[in-house]
Amino acid sequence: MKNSQIYNALRSLTQNEFHEFGKFINSPYFNNRSEVIRFYDAVKKHYPDFNIKKVNEEMIFSKIYPKKIFNDVLLRKVFSLTTNLVADFLAISSFKENELEYNVKIADKLREKKLSVMFEKRSKIIESLFDTFPHTFAYYESKFNFTTLKNGYFLHTDEGKMIKGFQKEIDDFMEYFLSVSLLLYIRLSEWSKARSIKFDLKFYDEVLNHIKKYDYNNNPLINLYYNMLMLLNTEEEKYFYELQQGRKNFENKLSPGDDYNAVITLMQYCYKKVQKGDSDFRRRQFEMVNIVLDKNMLPPGNIEPYFFINSVRNAAFIREFEWCTNFIEKYKSRLNKERLSETVSFSNALLEFCKGNYDTALNCISAFNTERSTIKTEFRNIQLIIYYELNFTDELYSLIDSYKHFLSRDKDIAEKTKEMCSDFIKMFVKLEKIKHDENSEAAILLKNEVEKKPYFNMKEWFFLKLDEIIKKSRK
Description:
Layout: H1 5-11, H2 15-25, H3 34-43, H4 57-64, H5 72-97, H6 99-112, H7 116-132, H8 137-157, H9 159-195, H10 204-213, H11 220-234, H12 237-249, H13 256-275, H14 281-294, H15 305-317, H16 321-331, H17 337-355, H18 358-366, H19 376-389, H20 393-409, H21 415-437, H22 440-452, H23 459-473
Helix pairs in contact: 1-5, 3-4, 6-7, 6-8, 8-9, 9-11, 11-12, 11-13, 12-13, 13-14, 14-15, 15-16, 15-17, 16-17, 17-18, 17-19, 18-19, 19-20, 19-21, 20-21, 21-22, 22-23
């Protein structure tokens, strides 16, 4: 009972929607079956849990049909009718929520019925809506549809206006077509990279050449998604700044979803630049994270631990310590409970490490059982670095030994991760030896070796320590 389709459907409604659904089924226009109303009245006080102990089939049936003997088929029929009405309610509610589309449809029907005065009044309402609505894909679709139906209206009332409207009709269509095409190209391009699938990007070159030839700089979505596409596919820095500027210029015209897509694209580019050794982009990445937080762009539900840790790590590396403390405290409640302890412990360890509070950082790690962690290697890497900073030589070599054994026996760690960790350990052993020998030549060789390695999270720290050894040995 509890997991049946009807209760899942009702449970999906928000409290306000559930209340409105009650009004919906009480309208004879939408529902002429009184048994559905009686069913709703019988279960409404049990929303949203619909506990099986309180909502059983016999009880529900007796509320719907007080004078009948229980009939499973009859009850299932009520369930089916109500489930279908939930779908109708969601469809109609969704349609009315899109105010532009809803009014354009009304205008279209008024045109069909030749209600000219009402059509022209409704058209003025729609024109004012276009001035205030965010420029979404639905906006451009409604804009094109409205221009089309106006041209149809003028066919019988003012042929001159209709002819003038033809150019606007194709211009509106191109805005809609180009903006949607760019979004689809981004989607297919990214999935192509992720899954090594080759998609047929129809009109790709033609669309890009058309946008370069004609001026769409004042169109929020075309400007935004063109620069996003070019940034993702070329990684040319100029598109980062053009996307950043376009987002600022059109911020008040963008929907939250489109704004989020732009900011996340900018943030990902910053991260890639940092990985390639351009630490200046750490500050820009920090700015993007703050936009996400200040504008409440985080998707509902749990925060990804990766986003949480990387935000703290990046901010700590640029010494935004107070920000890190506030971020951890404010957003830790939104972490998945199973990952909360390890994520907060590691984030605090990163923060204290960057402050130079190595003992405190070590306590943050020691307080957590790393064997239960999903980021075991991250914990061990920073623990090695803390031992190095504290000159805990015996503990460091003991950890290196246990780390090697851990990598060889743990079957859950991907081979690529094992290779990266083994490489990290080898570089670390070399660094520790160079530190004791104060060998500047060996330090320079290791620095060159580290530079050639793919980015890893503590690469900057390695450079810093090697530079310290080189500088010290030359005194």
